[in-house]
Amino acid sequence: MTNSPSHIGIISLGHYVPKRVLTNRDLEKLVETSDEWIVTRTGINERHVAAKGERTCDMASLAAQEALAKAGMTADQIELIIVATATPDHNFPSTACLVQKAIGASKAAAFDLSAACSGFLFAFTTAEQFLKTGLYKNALVIAAEKMTRILDWNDRSTCVLFGDGAGACILAPVKGKSGILSDYLHAKGEFADMMYVSTYRKKPCDQANTLIQAPHIIMHGQELFKIAVNSMAEAIEIAAQKAGIKLSDIDCIVPHQANDRIISAIAKKLDVPKEKVFINIQKYGNMSAASIAVALYEAVEEGRIKKGDTVALVTFGAGLVVAANIVKW
Ligand code: ACO
Fold first, then answer.
1. Which of the chain's ends, N or C, has fewer CB atoms near its CB within 10 Å?
2. Pair 130, 238 in one domain
3. Tens-digit pLDDT profile for residues 12-31
4. Prediction pTM value
């Protein structure tokens, strides 16, 4: 059990997804794919796509504002902002500083954190440490991604998988037994070439099928699939052990939403009924770091997570980076 006398807990959650929806049928017009293939192989029906000019920091700010409203807080009360993103608007300034400006969190320290799809939990655990030491009294943790900016729309093996969106939470010390019970962060750099963003010119094409120089995702899907299942199942086991609980004590697992089949395989490996696992990939695809933040938001809003529940959060991402937390609601 890694719980210190003052537990850090989630005070509120927020989210934002862009209005525009891109369905599998829409993608059939762009690449040689089918609704049937995408649904069967991934569980995705549709994803949201940021509007032209809609930036990562815009989505992050809207998610943050909802979290602030739900907490009954004003932005100037926030002491720390961490934005997890693999798709920042600039190399610098950080997305966190742009969010700080947009929401008016004038008293906060702010920085970005890069851990691909595991970014939200890496930021979550990082913020928790700052709060445990007492350096800050609260933290706004945001995950925001404009994945459609780094997709090659002619590569059917990746462009059907991802979407845009943002999720946010406010962390602060909480009373009683609720709060974060354990943390597990791990990196496996030996698998760095399994998935990366390339800026080489070879592949990406624009709508007119002209080769362009643009960042785009290179991914070894099949190999990643197996590592994802094993790593996430192991991460939950380690986090549960650190929290001093059994797997059967977990009421809800909220995993990274990369593929419905990966999620099913994790549930099977851990012998956890799939009904205990929250899934929303069908609506959003893989929003990288934002996926688990939005999933957690919806799990709470839909009553799948209730006061007193024990929740397991688990992610993996390019790096490879794996993370899990056990949280008592
Ligand atoms: N539509 C139709 N056919 C397709 C498509 C498509 N969109 N994409 C690939 N295919 C074809 C392939 O070309 C291949 O054809 P072939 O048999 O003639 O060679 C066939 O479908 C099977 O391809 P596979 O890659 O073997 O398909 P698989 O069942 O492994 O599914 C997928 C691919 C969905 C990518 C899966 O491997 C996966 O989800 N892997 C994990 C990916 C992942 O988690 N990525 C994110 C990790 S980190 C992060 O979230 C940032």
1. N
2. no
3. 999 999 999 999 999 999 99
4. 0.94
